[in-house]
Amino acid sequence: MTIIKRGLAALAAGALSTALAVPAFAEPVKFDFWFGLSGDLARVVDTLCKNFNASQSDYEVVCTSQGNYDATLQNTIAAFRAGKQPTVVQVYDVGTATMMLSGAYKPADKLMEENGYKIDYSDYFPGIARYYATSKGEMLSFPFNSSTALMYWNKDAFAKIGKTEAPKTWEDVGADLKALKDAGYDCPMAINISGNESWQLMEQFSAIHNQPIATKNNGYDGLDARLEMNKTKFVQYVTDLKKWYDDGLIKIKSKDLGQDMVQAFATGTCQVIMTSVGDHGTVGKTQKEGMNWDVAELPVYAGTERKNSLVGGASLWVLSGKSDAEYKGAAAFLNFIHDPKTALFWSTNTGYIPVTKSGFEYMKANGFYDKAPYKGREVAIASLTASEPTEITRGIRLGNFTQIRAEFGTQMQAIFANKESVQEGIGALVKNGDAILDRFQQTYPNKTLP
Amino acid sequence: MEKRVTFGRWTIGILFAVPQLLLIFTFFYWPAGQAVYWSLTLQQPWGGGNIWVGLDNFRSILANADYWNSITASLVFASISTGLAMIIALVLATLTDRQLAGSRLYRVVLIWPYGIAAPALALAFRFILAPEAGFMAAVNKFWPGFWDPGLNGADAMASVIIAFSWKYVGYNFIFFLAALQAIPRSLIEAAAMDGSGVVRRFWDIQFPLITPTIFFLLVINITESFQDSFGIVDIMTAGGPANATNLMVYKIYSDGFRGLDYSGAAAQSIILMLLIIVLTIVQFRFIERRVHYR
User: Fold this and answer.
1) What region does B84 belong to: left with phi over 0, alpha with psi -120 to 50, or beta?
2) How many domains does chain B have?
């Protein structure tokens, strides 16, 4: 089997090298960058790549969208196994643990150092840097597109119940939703309960309340971490959400049902949602004419000391097995992305936030946050920097976390369909999630997270 | 006596067979063999190494309640959607075969659904069956809470079955119509002369004569319902709510590609392969006995 495999690989490599060996002396060194954004965002990335190629003549980055984050990781793995991996790849937040154990990357900090770029890593917002850094603080990848969850609220609706500010505690939220319902609003708040919403409902909530998702500091300290959200404030939170749902204060909105949360909010159907700051632009562009709305930090339970929320998005990894020339190009590319001017371009054209303090300052100095469509996005920075990251609010470093998120969706759906009680459902989430973690640990014997 | 072409040397025969064998080996036996190997190991997704675990993957899958739920869901999906797609197609084909007004138009139009890619048709049905925006919204207005595929597993299963059956009605229709038209007109006319009605003629003449086609379509429909359901489930329900539509083929995809558990997914696909083989053997052993080819 291996002989055939090697033979075929050699054949393929041979064919490829003859195809690529056309001499290109004066031409720039080409290298590949694969990313997982599509639609409008993909066009912005393409422009970013064009800007980089125009900014210098030594390197040329070839940017290819793989459609979405999952596909990007899958295709990169397939390409890596065949020895045809891209030089730079965008990997989503929850893929970080898998990447760290892959042995398939070149540490970003080493790459920059070897190529003579001085990057001030303390310039990154700590909440963002720590999410992607090792437990010792080394940056193995570069934070790229970043966001965090915010609460979007309809000012007009809240004015009807005599409120001019967004609720700050979940207790207030409960009272306000009731008041909105009594004031005749059919859908005071919209949520969705698929695996995707694990991010705002479980992960962000737990970080802000300084509650662990898993033992071993959310997995940073070892692969033997196991879930424990069945023992935290999260149980109370799901109980409240379920009660509000039963009382008709919360409606479930998803694409499958006809309208997703963001559309439901933008059209004025629902008055409160929790979603990424990345949707700020979409709401602005698609909102009902003349609707007044704003964003606020996610609420906390009364008496909780607020901690920083988590970053969401993706980081850029440089893969191993490339030539020195390609690495030089990759380093130049990462340096270009790190530039505050790129941050301004990136945040203006997408809903993402700047990842460095200097980028944020540069944007503030340019008056970015004063103007109408972008005003309010600074709340995301406030939420991310609400406190120094604690051992628990650094992030989540669990293997196959995508599957745990899917399990979250499954159990939430079972809870909301009254198939299970809240405690049973979260218990099942822990049990099934632990089985996923168990399997991940067995797959990587004798390996530890860096 | 049958005529046979014979070759003087056996090597020539082998040479003619080699291209085909090579194709089958590269595209079937090699990947299938690889899947068997993976199912007996724990593979690191990035190729960093693997551990031999014997049958552990199979043991842990078969001990998992979610997996049995997935098998049940697949069997429910296969039997209902095959039944629906075949019965509707047979009724339509019989009506078209009777040359009723407009049957030429139906003949063309009814074939179209099969030409539509599963994800595209799933997107269309997602809209049609959306409880808040589509056709079902009107039903929900009269009967609030009647249709809720977002939380009700039975409704979600019904949605994917409807979408899948709709596609395969077109496929089955072509075969049924061809089979019906191959029946000599004189037989049916003779029966009509003897005074038998439409229904009688169908059960006594047409149905027995098209049993080979029915059997063929049964095998194909059941096999396809295990494999071709992926695109529909992915777009319409993503396996939810609460795993109600997590069919075996979708679970293989989500565990293997989203969860990067290549070994577990390989073991699941071996089980799926065995299940389809067993189902097909059963069909050939027990149902084919009642089929009359001539």
Assistant:
1) alpha
2) 1
Whose tokens are 């609720």? That residue is A167
| Pairs of CB atoms within 8 A across A/B | 101
A7-38: per-residue pLDDT in tens? 555 445 444 444 444 444 568 999 999 999 98
Of B153, B169, B150, the residue nearest B81 (C-alpha): B169
ipTM above 0.90, yes or no: no
Taking CA atoms, B218 is separated from A81, B78, B92, B284, B287, in Å, by: 40, 10, 17, 11, 10
Tell me the H-state helices in chain B.
10-24, 30-39, 56-62, 65-97, 103-109, 118-128, 135-142, 153-181, 185-193, 198-201, 207-209, 211-227, 230-236, 248-253, 262-282
Residues in chain B: 294
Q: Name every chain B residue with its beta carbon within 8 A of the beta carbon of A257.
A: 130-133, 149-150
Strand partners, B195: none
Q: A314: phi > 0 → left, psi -120 to 50 → alpha, else beta; which?
A: beta
Q: Is B35 part of the contact surface with chain A (CB cutoff 8 Å)?
A: no
Nearest chain A Cα distance for residue B142, angstroms: 17
Say which CATH number the domain at B114 has. 1.10.3720.10
Q: How far is A25 from chain B (nearest CA, A)?
A: 34
pTM (two decimals): 0.88
The per-residue pLDDT for range B264-291, each reduced to its tens digit, is 999 999 999 999 899 889 888 888 777 7
User: Hey, what domains does chain A have and what are their CATH numbers?
Assistant: 26-147+311-370 (3.40.190.10), 149-309+399-443 (3.40.190.10)
